Amino acid sequence: MRKLILLALVGLGAQLVDGSLGMAYGVTSTTLLLAIGTNPAAASATVHLAEIGTTLVSGVSHWKFGNVDWKVVFRIGVPGAVGAFAGATFLSGLSTETAAPLMALILLTLGLYVFIRFTTMGLPKGRLGLPLRKRFLAPLGVVAGFVDSTGGGGWGPVGTPAILASGRLEPRKTIGSIDTSEFLVAVAASLGFLFGLGSENIDFTWVAALLIGGVIAAPIAAWLVRHIPPRVLGAAVGGVIILTNSRTLLRSDWIDASDGVRYSIYAVIYVVWAAALVYSFSQHRKNAAEERRIIEEAEARTAEQDRREPEPA
Questions:
Q1: Pick from 123, 136, 137: which is nearest to 167 by CA?
Q2: How far apart are CA 274 and CA 267, in angstroms?
Q3: What's the Rg (C-alpha) of the chain?
Q4: How far apart, in whole angstroms, are the C-alpha atoms of residue 288 and residue 282?
């Protein structure tokens, strides 16, 4: 019973983060399942089966709060489902040890771009509102879906920074669209695992515990992402990407850093991340105050002009 309660709490916390930042549900949940001895394929299958419910509730919640671009959902979600099914089907015969550090390096680069861009300049405006093309979203979906099913998580960490870096979709709609499209990925990955593993290797009680926690958190996260300033949200997402992928690189065979080196780097990242969030929030308040002042001055000028105009005869 204690383990089930813990799994439910993990599902709640993971979905709260995932629904707010567009990533980390699969990574968090899979990490716990692996830590208690579950084999990688069964762990990923358990998480993806739970995600069918959590992503459905999360998608509906994001839709109600206006956080979803449906064109993006289908353009990335359908190719993502294809990649997820392929990855799930062949997971038992695949090794992602070599690919993981390379993918982490790519994601770290994207994370640094998002982090610096949003912290220093806020929401990208130059291309905001321009359509995201199929030739960009389709390959991204296939890669993200494949990584997600083979690694137990990755749809958000791959998809979210790539779309944010394009500057064409505001953060809350990026996160809402990624979370909503993940439903298609979760269904396809689950079918692939059931086809490749069968149901005997999956503990459906664990699936239910993760699902309950995630379903409770989904609408809260959808409300939260609508009320977090884009500048702060972008800095937060960038920090998550940097921290997650720095950890992967430092623990990989490429670097294999000692505990002292890793913890020192983590400490630096946390300090810089915290400072960036404080700075982003202060700049948001400053800009918001400036915008209110401009609006108030414009309303005052309009009212003064109305008073000066002669009354109609």
A1: 123
A2: 11
A3: 22
A4: 10
Local structure of 292: helix, strand or coil: helix
Separation between Cα atoms, residue 234 and residue 256, nearest integer Å: 30
Number of other CB atoms surrounding residue 92 within 10 Å: 12
Q: Which one, of 37, 86, 71, lies nearest residue 201 by Cα?
A: 37
pLDDT digits (tens, 9 = 90+) for 278-313: 999 898 888 777 766 766 666 676 666 666 665 555
List helix spans (H) across the chain.
Answer: 2-21, 25-35, 40-64, 70-89, 99-121, 134-151, 155-166, 171-197, 204-227, 230-251, 259-308
Which residues lie closer than 8 Å to 215 by C-beta, 6 or more apart? 15, 53, 54, 57
Residues 109-138: tens digit of each pLDDT: 777 877 887 788 765 554 555 566 777 888
Name the 3-class secondary structure at 309.
Answer: coil
Q: At what angle do helices 70-89 and 40-64 cross, to 10 degrees?
A: 170
**Torsion, Cα of 220, 193, 208, 147 (10° steps):** -30
pTM of the model: 0.63
CB 71 within 8 A of CB 231: no
Q: How far is CA 289 from CA 62, 282, 284, 292, in A?
A: 28, 11, 8, 5
Of 282, 257, 244, 252, the C-alpha closest to 114 is 244
Which residue from 79, 117, 109, 87 is spatially nearest to 26, judged by alpha carbons?
A: 87
Contact of 8 with 206, CB cutoff 8 Å: no
Residue 24 backbone zone (phi > 0: left; psi -120 to 50: alpha; other: beta): left
